[in-house]
Write a structure and sequence with these properties.
The structure holds two protein chains of two kinds. By secondary structure, chain A is an alpha/beta fold. Chain A has two domains: 168 residues, 3-Layer(aba) Sandwich (D-Maltodextrin-Binding Protein, domain 2), CATH 3.40.190.10; 219 residues, 3-Layer(aba) Sandwich (D-Maltodextrin-Binding Protein, domain 2), CATH 3.40.190.10. Chain A is built from 18 helices and eight strands. In chain A, strand 1, helix 2 and strand 2 form a beta-alpha-beta unit. Chain A is globular. Chain B has a single domain, classed as MetI-like (MetI-like fold), CATH 1.10.3720. Chain B is 75% helix and 0% strand. In chain B, helix 4 crosses helix 8 and helix 4 crosses helix 12. The longest helix of chain B is centred in the middle third of the chain and has 32 residues. The radius of gyration of chain B is 26 Å and the shape is globular. Chain B starts with a helix and ends with a helix. The chains are: A alpha/beta, B mainly alpha. The interface between A and B is medium-sized, with 33 and 37 residues.
Chain lengths: 420, 322
């Protein structure tokens, strides 16, 4: 009797598990965090799970490097996740799930506008990604050092040369080590390069380094004369990313060109050590005062077995109320036009951080259309890498600026030929 | 123990005898080798074959089926130079910078390492106080992970590192070691020697201890000087071991990647970019991923390593033959 009872129970349990497995739809979300994004998404998605019976969303938190290096290989091999948070927006387009049949495209157009184009490439002009995190590059300035040095901070519309002169004066008058520093990244130099006349596209709309020379000359010169912290670009090889956030936090750098995603870190780590603020991107001789937009977005992949669920999940995150909560909790600038126009009260942000985020948001109208288009260009990752490698070689004296630019152009030509 | 093993062996014996009857005793060896051959084929031989195919294809697709056949174009691109001694004259200048950096690195690193390893082995072979302790001290860095080695030395040598703090304290003033190409290269050689010397010291020490004591006693009776004893007895008798050490160090030197990549990232510029880093960056870190070019470069490196390995095998065989 006991044996029969046990057998029945085991069978029932087995059938239950099998039925559960059949009904359950497991969705894997590959996510990286600049701050607390994955944690916040994990929390928000529990609401999506509650609204969708049988859906189990697993947020796999990975390092950013895995998104850059492992995800493309996994996708090419057909073993990728169902969806991911990515930064190579147009570059991975061939793998994206087109959300068009599943979402209200009118709402998406009205909410995400131009950023939708960043995820499109060639003939694939559908709806692919929800830009979850809008960033813009720009400078952080140590206001306390300016005050100690008795030097007036350049105002709105000041040029890169004005800032170079002012920050050199501050460095001479204080204990700071470097007047300026810029992250070692092709994305970071793009805004200033556009302000100096870089076109980034030829007449046919293909990637190009035409007009980049003027910025390259100035940037290499600043690294040579000590205006820029040479360590950041010269102490690394290849296209490895390096930032100067720690040097700025330590009070060693007067002017640090990075971007809006660093606000949380500055807020947390600078504290009362000194007063810092965000100023708009300086202007260049070409007339523009452009930063570079960017950020990350959530995309689904064609290889998912549950396209409807993946699309519903992304659409859930794209809804104004949910998006606004995510932006407030992660302290990220919103790309959602409705959320942006309503304004975001960033959670637990100090007055300095709130002002900085508003400062970055205020700089968005100054972004050049070239910079905007460059961010959506599918070949921009290749161009970012080439920029870093060749500029670094010019900075350390392996190549002249002219040779470095010639090499950059031929590298780009070769890369585009292979990518085609 | 035997009580357990005997029945077990009987169980295995039945199918083995059946197999022996079926394929014959001479072919039975293949049956024993099969598990290892399968693993070797799957994880060593097959990747080499795949690498050859990748080297002959282009594009940035991972799947071979999606990659266009380009013949020897990747090799031609790598080798296209008007003057191979001047990377700036080469189409793939970064490859040739990496090649020359690797050659200089191997020459300096192997030279210093074998020299210091020999010196250390000679000292540790003497009857000095705390000999066991010093042997451990010299071997300790070998046990460290390459990333740990790199991070420790980066911490020491960075602009605000320990060494500069000490130099500032002495009034000598710090140097930005990792931003200057020559210093960065020099420190890369030093760190590599520091990290690996212990292993080769140990091999040379074993070689020294294998030299018969009576040869030295005879030299002593003949009143041979220490230098003459070293030159006429120690060096010739140690030369087979020295050659093995030299070849092993050469192979390891050509393969240098992890600790230097973590230490300098290959910079400043390309000053410490070695050939394996070039392959890694072309194939995996850059965009687009040029698997074909990376595979072609790795085949060229493999060719060099195969030559070095054959030399080592021949030397080992000659040593074994006496």
């Amino acid at each position: 009797m006991k044996k029969t009872h046990l057998l029945t129970t085991a069978l029932a349990a087995g059938l239950g598990v099998a039925a559960g497995a059949a009904m359950s739809q497991e969705i894997r979300f590959m996510c990286y965090s600049d701050g607390n994004e994955c944690e916040v998404y994990d929390d928000l998605l529990t609401r999506f799970e509650a609204e969708n019976d049988g859906v189990d969303v697993i947020v796999d938190v990975v390092p950013y490097q895995a998104i850059l290096e492992n995800l493309p290989v996994q996708l090419a091999a057909g073993t990728g996740p169902d969806l991911a948070k990515v930064t190579d927006l147009g570059g991975l387009n061939e793998f994206y799930l087109d959300l068009t049949p599943y979402v209200d495209t009118g709402y998406w157009d009205a909410s995400f506008g131009e950023t939708l184009n960043w995820y499109r490439n060639g003939d694939r002009q559908g709806y692919y990604g929800m830009h979850s995190q809008l960033t813009i590059t720009g400078p952080f300035v140590n206001a306390t050092l300016f005050e100690q040095a008795g030097v007036d901070m350049p105002g709105a519309g000041a040029s890169w040369d004005d800032w170079a002169t002012a920050t050199r004066a501050v460095t001479e008058a204080t204990d700071a080590d470097f007047p300026m520093a810029m992250d070692r990244s092709g994305h970071r130099v793009a805004g200033p390069a556009v302000s100096y006349g870089a076109k980034y596209f030829d007449a046919d709309g293909n990637g190009s380094f035409e007009g980049f020379d003027a910025f390259a000359e100035a940037f290499v010169g600043w690294n040579e004369d000590g205006t820029m912290a040479r360590d950041v670009w010269a102490s690394q090889g290849g296209s490895t990313y390096a930032d100067a956030a720690q040097e700025f936090i330590n009070g060693e750098v007067v002017f640090y060109y990075s971007g809006s995603w660093q606000v949380g870190r500055m807020d947390e780590q600078v504290g009362d050590f000194f007063d810092w603020q965000v100023v708009g991107s300086p202007c260049g001789p070409a007339g523009a005062c452009s930063g570079m937009p960017g950020g990350a977005g959530v995309v689904g992949f064609e290889q998912t077995e549950h396209p409807e669920v993946v699309a519903a999940l992304i659409d859930f995150l794209a809804q104004e109320e949910i998006y606004a909560e995510a932006a407030a909790r992660t302290k990220n600038l919103p790309a959602h036009l409705g959320v942006a126009s309503a304004g975001v009260e960033f959670q637990d942000a100090s007055p300095a951080a709130q002002a900085a985020l508003n400062g970055f948001a205020g700089a968005l109208p100054d972004v050049s259309p070239i910079a905007f288009a460059y961010q959506g260009y599918a070949g921009n990752r290749a161009m970012f890498g080439i920029t870093v490698e060749r500029l670094s070689q010019a900075i350390v004296g392996e190549l002249s600026v002219g040779d470095a630019m010639m090499r950059a152009s031929s590298d780009l030509e070769a890369a585009m030929a292979e990518a085609d | 123990m035997l009580k357990i093993l005997t029945p077990m062996m009987r169980i295995i014996e039945v199918p083995m005898l059946a197999l022996q009857r079926k394929i014959g005793i001479n072919r039975l060896a293949w049956a024993f080798l099969l598990p290892n051959l399968v693993l070797f084929g799957l994880f060593a031989f097959l990747p080499v074959i795949l690498n050859v195919f990748y080297a002959m294809t282009g594009g940035d697709n991972v799947l071979l089926a999606d990659r266009p056949d380009v013949g020897a174009r990747n090799f031609a691109q790598l080798l296209d130079c008007s003057n191979h001694f001047d990377p700036n004259s080469c189409r793939e200048d970064k490859f040739w910078r990496a090649v020359w950096n690797t050659i200089w690195f191997v020459v300096l690193q192997v030279g210093f390492m074998v020299g210091f390893a020999l010196l250390t082995a000679l000292i540790l072979n003497r009857d000095i106080r705390a000999r066991g302790f010093f042997r451990s001290v010299f071997f300790f860095p070998v046990l460290l992970s390459p990333v740990v080695v790199a991070l420790v030395w980066k911490w020491i040598l960075q602009r605000e590192g320990v060494l500069n703090a000490f130099l500032d304290w002495t009034g000598a003033g710090g140097i930005n070691w990792l931003v200057d190409a020559q210093w960065a290269f020099g420190w890369s050689v030093f760190i590599s020697v520091w990290a690996h010397m212990g292993f080769y010291t140990l091999i040379l020490l074993a070689g020294l201890q294998a030299i018969p004591r009576d040869v030295y006693d005879a030299a002593l009776m003949d009143r041979a000087s220490a230098w003459r004893t070293f030159r006429r007895i120690t060096l010739p008798l140690l030369s087979p071991t020295m050659l093995v050490v030299l070849i092993l160090a050469l192979i390891k030197g050509v393969q240098t990647f992890d600790e230097i990549y973590a230490f300098t990232g290959g910079g400043p510029g390309t000053a410490t970019t070695f050939i394996i880093q070039y392959i890694y960056e072309r194939g995996f870190a850059g965009a687009p991923r040029l698997f074909g070019l990376a595979a072609a470069a790795s085949l060229l490196v493999a060719g060099v390593l195969v030559v070095l390995t054959l030399v080592q095998l021949r030397i080992s065989k000659e040593n074994a033959d006496g």
